[in-house]
Amino acid sequence: MPKDNRNLLDVLKFELEFLEQGGYGRLARESWRPRFVFEDSPTCMNFNSNDRKPCSECLLMQFVPEDARKEQTPCIHIPLSPSGETLDVLYRTGTQQEIEEALGDWLRATIRRLEAEKTKQAASCSAKFLGLQAPR
Q1: Relative to the CA of 14, which of 5, 25, 43, 124 has its CA 20 to 30 Å away?
Q2: Coil, helix or strand at residue 115
Q3: Is 119 exposed, middle or buried (0-12, 13-18, 19+ CB in 10 A)?
Q4: Is pLDDT of 1 > 70?
């Protein structure tokens, strides 16, 4: 699936930093249009690129539900909340603040989960290397 060779955890941490630094605020030169989450972020493979790659190669595709992967902008269909709220829905019903809060919550939760999985995997590999039973 993804052909994006960047580290997923690094990309998500960068996206969170971009969000927290106000990256989705309107730019003076583009004040006529809103900024779109993921699409208008340096984390997007196609950000400021003349050589557009298909979204199917993006690391974020693993978070996109199967039925939304062929959409024009699949990343706006990533469920950001336990209730399944997506950017697609929030763009139509939420404020900029609600969008950014939902994105921030999702990014922090996803980063924590991936870091926990990484720690658990490292502990398991260490235990196997030492010939010990992995902790449960």
Answers
A1: 124
A2: helix
A3: exposed
A4: no
pLDDT tens-digit map of 18-41? 999 988 876 556 565 677 899 888
Instruction: Compute and round to an integer the Cα radius of gyration of the chain.
Output: 17
Contacts of 78 (CB under 8 A, 6+ apart): 60, 63, 64, 86, 87, 106
How far is 8 from 50, CA to CA, in rounded Å? 23
Q: DSSP code of 112?
A: H
Segments in the chain forming alpha helices (H): 8-20, 87-93, 96-130
Question: Token pair 């829905």 is at which residue?
Answer: 89
